[in-house]
């Protein structure tokens, strides 16, 4: 009988893309995906904040109590962080696999856990439907890993290493494998600016290749580093956006709207430069959906600095914010800076996060209302509600469409008639 496995991913879309690849490799090796009482439970972890790491630990303990016989395997950033700092001895896990060895996870599981699955020797690639993305007719493709920026608050470069990019030709062939099986490919990276850092290839050339040489109906991007948004980027979007294959959604982590705080974070840009970039994106298309990440309560962030961030976001065309409260991570520059610089209190961080959350909700609702009355291509998803199907607009806004279509996922044209 084949051994079974289940996987769960924390954190960013890169982690979700890696989870999908782990699922695919496990199934190709003969393991069967099973949510209930799996033989192996694989956790692809996150350590970007203290909260994220704590949630991974909680899941480990919950899983051990609920499934005492299941082998627990932890990989990803928290696994790497624990290994580097020897923080895993008390955890009831069977295997800890760091990021550097993640690509060998199936081999390590087979050798270390002594599980011998029935091998699929057909040599065929299969789309393994084990994620919210694949189930919705979309696939996440990891194009790059690692980062050379070393922002003062960020632990990611210490856990994922220097930039490593996939070759454009390899990505083209991999994406072609999904033609006819999915409707959207999402290109994900730790740092899009660093794509080609090690290979000499260009991010824009990758985008052109995916559009010109594959026939996946929709192409979208994960997070965009601000320095990826340059003249080449705008020339590309001006040429290709009218072809209706590029998803008009941009997630740009800016982290702060205060130049003083941005400088302490070592982000390498000013709020004026960011405002110019997001306004230029908005001019590409009036319905561009722009989202961002913001850290509140960073070192030396005063009320004045926070007000600058608040006003920057209020005046910008950014319509949604993902808000994080600053937490020191061991080994980062900010961890040592905190010994000399003042850090806002927990209550101040909560208050600032709440204020930005309310502003984000207001701007998001305004953007939803702005879309009413227009016609858009919609990617239908699996979920239904009475006579309606859930879908995604051409800018990734969620929508419910009245349709009798029973096809699993497909693209249709629809008019947005109301916002509730």
Automatic annotation (TrEMBL):
InterPro entries: Elp3/MiaA/NifB-like_rSAM (IPR006638), Methylthiotransferase (IPR005839), Methylthiotransferase_CS (IPR020612), Methylthiotransferase_N (IPR013848), Methylthiotransferase_N_sf (IPR038135), rSAM (IPR007197), rSAM_horseshoe (IPR023404), rSAM_sf (IPR058240). It comes from the Bacteria. Gene3D superfamilies: Methylthiotransferase, N-terminal domain, tm_1862 like domain. Its cofactor is [4Fe-4S] cluster. Residues 3-114 form the MTTase N-terminal domain. Keywords: 4Fe-4S, Iron, Iron-sulfur, Metal-binding, S-adenosyl-L-methionine, Transferase. It holds the Pfam family UPF0004. One of its GO terms (molecular function) is tRNA (N(6)-L-threonylcarbamoyladenosine(37)-C(2))-methylthiotransferase activity. Residues 133-366 form the Radical SAM core domain. This is Uncharacterized protein. It comes from Candidatus Roizmanbacteria bacterium CG23_combo_of_CG06-09_8_20_14_all_35_49. The lineage of its organism: Bacteria, Candidatus Roizmaniibacteriota.
């Amino acid at each position: 009988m084949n051994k079974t496995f289940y996987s769960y991913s924390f954190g960013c879309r890169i982690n979700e893309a890696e989870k999908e690849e782990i699922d695919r490799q496990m199934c190709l090796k003969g393991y069967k995906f099973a949510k209930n009482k799996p033989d192996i439970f694989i956790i692809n972890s996150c350590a970007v904040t203290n909260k994220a790491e704590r949630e991974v630990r909680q899941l480990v303990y919950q899983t051990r109590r609920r499934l005492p016989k299941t082998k627990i395997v932890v990989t990803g950033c928290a696994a790497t962080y624990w290994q580097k700092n020897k923080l895993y001895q008390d955890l009831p896990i069977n295997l800890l696999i760091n990021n550097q060895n993640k690509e060998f996870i199936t081999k390590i599981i087979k050798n270390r856990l002594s599980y011998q699955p029935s091998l699929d020797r057909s040599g065929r690639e299969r789309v393994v439907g084990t994620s919210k993305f694949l189930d919705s007719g979309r696939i996440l493709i990891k194009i790059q890993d690692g980062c050379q920026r070393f922002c003062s608050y960020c632990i990611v470069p210490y856990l994922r290493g220097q930039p490593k990019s996939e070759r454009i030709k390899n990505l083209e062939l991999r994406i072609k494998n999904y033609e006819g099986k999915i409707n959207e490919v999402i290109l994900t990276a730790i740092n899009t600016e660093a794509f080609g850092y090690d290979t000499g290839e260009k991010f824009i050339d990758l985008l052109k290749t995916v559009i010109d040489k594959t026939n996946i109906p929709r192409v979208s991007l994960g997070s965009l580093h601000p320095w990826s948004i340059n003249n080449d980027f705008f020339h590309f979007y001006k040429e290709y956006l009218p072809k209706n294959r590029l998803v008009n959604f941009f997630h740009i982590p800016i982290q702060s709207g205060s130049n003083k705080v941005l400088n302490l974070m070592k982000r390498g840009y000013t709020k004026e430069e960011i405002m110019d970039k997001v306004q230029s994106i908005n001019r590409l298309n009036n319905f561009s959906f722009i989202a961002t990440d913001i850290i509140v309560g960073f070192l030396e962030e005063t009320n004045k600095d926070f007000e600058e961030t608040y006003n920057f976001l209020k005046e910008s065309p950014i319509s949604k914010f993902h808000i994080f409260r600053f937490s020191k991570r061991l080994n980062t520059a900010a961890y040592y800076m905190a010994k000399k610089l003042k850090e806002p209190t927990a209550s101040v961080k909560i208050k600032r996060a709440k204020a930005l959350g309310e502003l984000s909700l207001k701007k998001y609702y305004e953007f939803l209302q702005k879309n009413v009355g227009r016609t858009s291509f919609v990617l239908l998803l699996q979920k239904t509600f009475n006579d309606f199907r859930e879908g995604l607009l051409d800018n990734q806004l969620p929508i419910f469409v009245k349709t009798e279509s029973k096809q699993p996922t497909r693209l249709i044209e629809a008019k947005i008639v109301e916002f509730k």
